[in-house]
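Write out this protein's structure.
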Amino acid sequence: MPEPSVPKSVYCLIVISMVICLPMIALSVVNYGLLSIWLNAAIAVFILLHNATFLGVAWWTKKHSSGTKAAISINDDLDDDGPLTMAEPAVAFHMGNIAPLIFLCIINVTAFAIMVDITTRGALSSTLPAERIGSHKWNIKVQIAQTTVLGVELLVQLIMLTVCALGWRRLREEEENAMEEYEYGSA
């Protein structure tokens, strides 16, 4: 049975992340602070785009893969200078996924810090002048909910980044071990 291209834990985190993005967008529309509207909605859209792209690539990879496991195997039939053959690693552990996750975590941390500042100081006394504009309709309950949802999304993103980075590191270690075994065997 072929190994799935994405671990179930990453799929679960992707689904949780997409579900959390929906209240982020809804709360950013209800809150009338300028940064709250644009910053949080933009982050939610970026996260949804990344997750949808990730799921699309994972589906395409699973559909078009040869069904080999993501492991390293050495072709013993060839001469000593024969190449190593390695199956493609899972899509989740690819740098094409890890780099956008790092970017999303950075902008999410920045937005969370801004939202905590706005929530604790209030819109009118915020350190950000753009947030003071139109803040007469500002609602602290919506602001707290929005900051909480953004914080939960940040945790999910950090967990997903950690899982993917650890998987990438484990695959690199296995590749190095296989290369060392191959070099030792051919010497």
